[in-house]
Amino acid sequence: MSEIKIFDKVFYLMMKKILSFLSLVLIFSCQTNPVISRVPAKQTAEQMEKQEFEMLMKQDSIHKHQTAAESLDVLLNENPDDRRVSLIINNNSNCNIIVRFAGEKFYNLPIYRHSKNFIVVEKGTYSLGANLCNARYSATKTFDDSSTMTLTENQ
To answer: Does domain 45-149 sit in CATH 3.40.630.30?
Structure first.
């Protein structure tokens, strides 16, 4: 019986050494490759505005016929009870712009350089903002009637 106990102890010690050796081999043989991921470069405000402009122009071109019909309806029917006004905005600058309207409702109107665009908005007071070739335009306007605005950069 003592031979069996000795054998068990030897077997146990041998297995323990083998497991330790295999554990070390496993730990040190696993290569860790560095993970390289592409982190997008930070976009400048100008680049972000350019992307937003392109997206808004795509949306604008899809809805242009509907917006034109609505704008003509508001202009031709001038009903005092109508809560909408039609605005035509001329962009006389050398840059594409987004005119932002902030009031009870919010609107973003993209306009190509040296061009015009129109929009129908609810009557009311709005804070307007736009970047005209890196110059900031900001104003507060009340729209009770349809009108035309012209934005020109300082030269």
So the answer is: no
